[in-house]
Amino acid sequence: MNQTSNTAAVGKAPTGIPGLDSVARGGLPLGRTTMISGTAGSGKTIFGAQFLLGGIEAGNEPGVLVTCEERPVDLRQNLAGFGWNVADLEARGLLGIVDLSPEPTEQMTAGTFDLEGLLTRITAMVRRLGATRLVIDSLGAMFSQFRESGLVRWELFRIAAALREEGVTTLLTVERDAEYGEVSRYGVEEFVTDNVIVLRNVLEWENRRRTVEILKMRGVEHQKGEFPFTIRPQDGITVIPLASARLTQQSSDTRATSGNSRLDEMCSGGFFRDSVVLVSGATGTGKTLMANEFIAGGLRAGERCLFFGFEESQEQIFRNARGWGIDLETKANEGLSHVTCAYPETMGLEDHLVAMKEHIEAFRPERLVVDSVSALERVATPRAFREFIIALSAFIKERRIMGLYTAATPTLMGGSSVTEAHISTMTDTIILLRYVEADSAVHRALTILKMRGCAHDKDIRRFTVDGSGMHIGDPFRGVEGILEGRPVHVTTGGEGEANP
Fold first, then answer.
1. Buried b (16+ CB within 10 A) or exposed e, 155-193
2. What's CA 369's distance to the chain center, in Å?
3. CA-CA distances (angstroms) from residue 423 to 186, 277, 387?
4. Is 461 within 8 Å of 447 (Cβ atoms)?
């Protein structure tokens, strides 16, 4: 039998953990043993419980949870924080708990510990419920009685063999001492189990970042590398499978207004319906104004619009919009638009992404603004930020939502934006806003740096802002170095004079 047919012969059990089945290409191999390894607090117990609940919710598959550390009463209480009614599932015969947690006064002599009686209790519960899924949490507590790794390996073989005979899909949680290095505490567990999944909870830039990695999965295909995940009280674990984003989104020639008629002309008719636009500029150049005009243009066309604010409150956003003649608050009250605001520091970037996806799914907008993505960049590493932008952009493109992101440049007069460098390749259109010092005054400038799929105005144009919005005027003539923040007047001969 060739490798393809071998792989196809192994069935998969959906995990019930959002995003993980995409990484595992369908779930965990049926009837096999998977080791879940992680440091304290990485999410091993939640992972195991969610796997059991996933089977119950998806197909009424009974499960058994063997607790070797937490008392059942504490376990039920902790899992209730995620909205999981463990006691009710037990009463309905869908979940069984085998209590192997030690009594406070219990002592055991090293070398006398034997698993035979414990395996009997576990298999009896599996047979009584007709369970198809089993979680043992954790092996570390069970194997702490053994001093030699050889004994640990032998007893683990016994566990895996006994559970395979029962036909259950099993998760065994184990602790490790560091986020990177030895996969397990005893150094043998990963060689005995069929599959190994590693959970990490790494401290990066004073923030914790959780990732999951499928280290091995015998006989079946899976995605390689680390994938971010988050744990939320109402949902449990959600994995963000960035590698699952595919360049398969449909493309449209349909145009939609930018909200500014002169900018539409510069774009040869407006933005493409399925595009993501980046507006980059220094503070006060007009980024939020452009975002508001983008929303206003959608509202005039009868489109639903969603505004994510990460620098100002909802009331500030409404007030600013009124100052430009845009009644965003009334449209929000009518249900045509929605504004949601949060400080970037209130949660991790993965949590922000999951929350934003939920808002998008619930409101189903046709236009979306993120003001600003550079505020979110402050709370993440460059890699995490890029992954966030990839995931968000892929998500809205799949749903044919037109998006506009704003980003701040590091200096008032321009220069390259860190955010811009990270995400410019993932956006379809880039618009730069700059301050220009000329004739003893400060002017504003706008240019379209790129626009995929069509010709566009390449001039750097003056614009002004008043109570009715943005007014784009004529191009700057005889001035160079605007985008670099060092404008100079140039003569017809090409010579320049700095600081005009």
1. bbeebbebbeebebbbbbbbbbeeeeeebbbbebbbebb
2. 18
3. 43, 11, 10
4. yes
Phi, psi at 213, each rounded to 5°: -135, 130
Dump pLDDT digits (tens) for 266-293: 999 999 988 999 999 988 899 999 999 9
* Contact of 444 with 285, CB cutoff 8 Å: yes
Task: Examine the residue annotation and report whether 179 is marked as an active-site residue of this protein.
Answer: no
Q: Record the tokens describing residue 218, joined without a space.
A: 């015998």
475 touches 460 (CB < 8 A): yes
Residue 498 CB coordination number (10 Å): 9
State how far the Cα of 368 lies from the Cα of 376, in Å rounded to an integer.
16
Q: What is the DSSP string of 206-225?
A: TEEEEEEEEEEETTS----S
CB 349 within 8 A of CB 276: no
Q: What are the angstrom distances between the C-alpha of 417 and each of 97, 422, 446, 483?
A: 54, 9, 15, 11
Residue 43 burial (C-beta neighbours within 10 Å; 0-12, 13-18, 19+): buried
Strand ordering across the sheet containing 461-466: 337-341, 305-309, 367-371, 402-408, 276-281, 429-438, 441-451, 461-466, 469-475
| 69 noted as active-site residue | yes
pLDDT of residue 477: 79
| Gyration radius of the chain's alpha carbons | 29
Q: How far apart are CA 197 and CA 205, in angstroms?
A: 25
Burial status of residue 290 (CB atoms within 10 A of its CB: 0-12, 13-18, 19 or more):
buried
Q: Give the 3-state secondary structure of residue 7.
A: helix
Tell me the mean pLDDT per 10 residues along the chain, length 500.
48 92 92 90 94 92 92 92 93 93 56 68 93 88 59 73 89 86 64 86 80 90 90 90 58 87 95 92 92 96 96 94 94 95 90 94 97 88 86 90 91 56 78 83 90 89 93 84 67 48
Evaluate the CA torsion angle 69, 75, 77, 80 in order and state its sign. positive
d(CA 475, CA 480) in angstroms, rounded, equals 12
Of 61, 189, 190, 311, which one is the catalytic site residue? 311
**What is the structure's pLDDT at 6?**
43
pTM for the model stands at 0.81
Is there a contact between 355 and 392 (Cβ–Cβ < 8 Å)?
no
Helix, strand, coil fractions of the chain, as percent rounded to 5? 35, 30, 40
**Edge-to-edge strands, sheet with 496-498:** 479-480, 488-490, 496-498
The H or E element spanning position 404 is strand 402-408
